[in-house]
Amino acid sequence: MYLFQLMDFYCASGMSLLWCTFFQTIAICWIYGAEKVYDNIHHMIGFRISKLWYWCWMVISPAFMVVSRGPGQRRSFATS
C-alpha cells in the first residue's frame, strides 16, 4: 500500500499527467497531423466524426492544458 501511495503522490500526480497528455496531444495532432488522425478514424469506423473533434485536438485541448497548468505552477513557485 505504501508503494502505491508513493507512486500516487510523486509519479501519477496531476502535473506529470498533464505534461504527458500535453506532449502526447502535440505529437499526435501537430507532428503526425490531425487530418491524418481524422482520416484514420474515418477508415476505422466507416463514417466521418464531427469536425468539433478536429478543433478539440488542435486548439481546445492544448489551450486548456496550458491554462490549467498556470495556477498550479504559480502556486508551486510561491511556496518554494
Structural descriptors:
80 residues, mainly alpha
Topology:
Blueprint: H1 2-11, H2 14-45, H3 51-79
Helix pairs in contact: 2-3
Q: Please estimate the helix content.
A: over 70%
Tell me, briefly, the overall form.
elongated
Structural class, from helix and strand content? mainly alpha
The count of helical stretches stands at: 3
**Biggest sheet overview:** none
The Cα radius of gyration reads: 17 Å
C-alpha end-to-end distance: 29 Å
Helix-strand sequence: HHH
Mean pLDDT, as a whole number?
80
Task: Count every beta strand, where a strand is a DSSP E run of 2 or more residues.
Answer: 0
Beta-strand proportion = under 5%
Contiguous low-pLDDT stretches (5 residues minimum) are none
